[in-house]
Hints:
38 residues; rod-shaped; 1 helix; mainly alpha
Amino acid sequence: MDLAFQxxxxxxxxxxxxxxxxKEYVKSLLSEFLDxxx
Length: 38
């Protein structure tokens, strides 16, 4: 039971972390771009 939960939960954690990092990366790119365009 625990093993099944872990194997199912790990990809979810990985995907949500990856999405969060992607959003932070895009946000930092956008802020840099906006700073350059001022």
